[in-house]
Structure formats: C-alpha cells, structure tokens
C-alpha cells in the first residue's frame, strides 16, 4: 500500500484562493517576458560569437598554411613573410582574448538556458491554472512556495538582460511602435526591471465580503434550482392525475354505454317477444283457451255441488219457513274467468284493428 496521503478533491478546491491564482498568473506572465528577452539576448550574442569566431578560424587557417609553405617562398618574400604570419597570429590571439574577456560564449549559453527555463516555468504555471481546482497537483500555498523558489533561482543564475534588449522590449510592446501603434498598455504583468507597479495588498474584509456575496448567490441559485425541480415534479404529478382521470372517465363512459346498449337490447327483445305473442294469438288459439276455461268452470261448479250436499237441504228448509231466498253471489273463480274472457276479447279486437 502507498504511504502517500490521499487528497480530498473538496479540500483541494477549498485550498485554492483567488489571490493565489492572481499571484501565479503574474509570475507566469513575467516568466514569459523574461523568456522573450533572454531569447533576443541569445540571438544577439550568437551573432557576436559568429563575428569573433569566424575571423579567428580564417586567420588561424591562413597562418598555419603559411608556416608550412615558408620554404617555397621567393627570396624577397622570406624576409617579410614571417613578420606577416606573426602579425596574423597576434591578431587571432587578440580577437580570441577579447571574446573570452567579453564572455560571449558563456553569455550565449546562459541566455539560451535561461530562455528555456523561463519558458518551462511559464508553461507549467499556465497549465496548472488552466485546470479545475480539484484536479491540480497540489494546494495553492504549496505551489506558490515551489514557484517562488524556481523564480528566485532563475533570477540568481540567469545572466543580466542587456540594456538594448530591455529597450527593444519596451519600445516594441509597452510603448508606441509599429507593433503597438496606439501605445496601449498590455493586460499582462511585466517584470519590475521594465515597469514599476504598485503592490497589491490583500484585504481580508473585502475578501470576506466577496465570499458572503458568492455564498448568498450560491444559496439563491440552489433555492431557484430546487423550486424549479419541485415545480417540474408537481407538473408531472398533475399531468399523471389528469391522464388517470381521463382514462377513468373514458372507462366509465364505455361501461355506461355497454349497460345502455344491453338495456336497449333487452327492451327490443321484450318488444319482439310481445309482438310475437300478439301475432300468435289467433282465433283458433283463443277458442281453445275459452274451451279450457269452460271446462275449468264446469269442473269447479260440479265439485262445489258434490262437496256441499247439505246446502240444498238448508235452502229447502228456509223456503218452507217462508224466508225470502237470497240471490246467489258469484264465486271468485267465476269472476276471474269472466275477467280473463273479457281480456281475451279485448286483445282480439286490438289485433283485428
């Protein structure tokens, strides 16, 4: 298992402050300016090195060849040829000594290395600031300490920028020139050797106020977001209820329609049955029914006679005592038969009409 402590993204995000990012931004821009100046200085010293090195190479080659060819010189040239060769050797040595005294080769390599180092530093800071706070390699204060050490080391080890390079940078970028005809001050930070700038003092009160404003804004945004989500959910629920009610009403309507259709079918069937009964009720069937009713009437009357033989005796005895005889009352069965016959006759008359 690794002994490295795992970094929480939330803690990493909180460990970066806007003031730290501003400081690193200024350092990255200043490192870019140093890279530009050291690159121009390297080009100038490279030209100077060529001016010193090429004549020395030519003179050394000529004098070396002349030393080997001294024996083949004419007799008149043998007296002054060594003087000329010696003078050329002296000039080559003098040029080499001046080049070493001016440290052209040393400054050439120094400016080249400084240009590469400043370019690397500026690029690293720019990449680090371009990442989200929770994806950066370290916290803000630790990265500032690291970059401050790198900048201090480069300033100490890098050769001084020549005045003509400073003037060229100021004239081509800061002041009015062909590249900057309006003389607009660039939005990036420049080294203090080019332009003095006031110190930006961090104010805790202002920072706390900005934090409170951001916090209130974040809370307001969160509240609006929750209200929006709640409204969307309520709209979904209302729509679902409305769809359910529509579906329910549709089902109830279909059910009522089916019941009405069934009732209508039953009523139609009943009317058909009644029509068929009326059609089937002919004179012949009525005659048969009346015959049956007549038989029932006769059977009922005969059964009454057989079952009540004492009733005549009672009547006779009453006649003998000169009591007026009451008229016989119609039996309930006779009334029912009479009503039935009347109904049948009425149906026959209706069918005939």
Automatic annotation (TrEMBL):
For this UniProt entry, which segments traverse the membrane? Answer: 52-73, 79-102
Please provide the record's keywords in A-Z order: Coiled coil, Membrane, Transmembrane, Transmembrane helix
- Protein name as annotated: SMODS and SLOG-associating 2TM effector domain-containing protein
Q: Which residues form a coiled coil?
A: 199-250
């Amino acid at each position: 298992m690794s002994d490295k402590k795992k970094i929480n993204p939330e803690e990493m995000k909180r460990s970066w402050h806007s003031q730290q990012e501003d400081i690193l931004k200024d350092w990255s821009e200043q490192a870019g300016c140093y890279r530009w100046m050291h690159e121009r200085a390297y080009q100038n010293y490279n030209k100077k090195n060529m001016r010193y090195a090429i004549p020395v190479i030519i003179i050394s080659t000529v004098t070396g060849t002349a030393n080997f060819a001294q024996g083949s010189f004419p007799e008149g040239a043998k007296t002054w040829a060594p003087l000329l060769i010696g003078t050329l050797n002296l000039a080559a040595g003098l040029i080499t000594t001046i080049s070493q005294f001016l440290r052209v080769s040393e400054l050439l390599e120094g400016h080249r290395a400084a240009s590469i180092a400043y370019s690397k530093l500026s690029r690293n800071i720019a990449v680090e600031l371009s990442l989200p706070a929770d994806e950066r390699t370290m916290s803000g204060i630790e990265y500032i300490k690291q970059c401050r050490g790198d900048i201090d080391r480069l300033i100490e080890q890098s050769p001084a920028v020549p005045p003509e390079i400073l003037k060229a940078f100021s004239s081509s970028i800061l002041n009015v020139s062909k590249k900057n005809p309006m003389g607009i001050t660039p939005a990036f930070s420049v080294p203090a050797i080019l332009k003095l700038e006031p110190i930006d003092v961090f104010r805790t009160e202002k920072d706390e106020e900005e934090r409170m404003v951001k916090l209130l804004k974040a809370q307001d945004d969160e509240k609006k977001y929750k209200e929006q989500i709640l409204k969307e959910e309520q709209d979904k629920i209302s729509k679902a209820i409305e769809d359910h009610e529509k579906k329910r009403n549709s089902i109830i309507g279909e059910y009522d329609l089916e019941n009405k259709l069934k009732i209508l079918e039953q009523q139609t069937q009943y009317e058909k049955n009644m029509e068929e009964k009326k059609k089937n009720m002919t004179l012949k069937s009525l005659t048969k029914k009346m015959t049956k009713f007549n038989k029932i009437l006769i059977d009922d009357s005969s059964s009454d006679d057989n079952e009540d033989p004492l009733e005549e005796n009672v009547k006779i005895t009453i006649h003998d005592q000169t009591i007026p005889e009451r008229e016989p009352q119609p039996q309930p069965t006779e009334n029912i038969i009479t009503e039935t016959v009347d109904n049948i006759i009425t149906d026959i008359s209706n069918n005939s009409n």
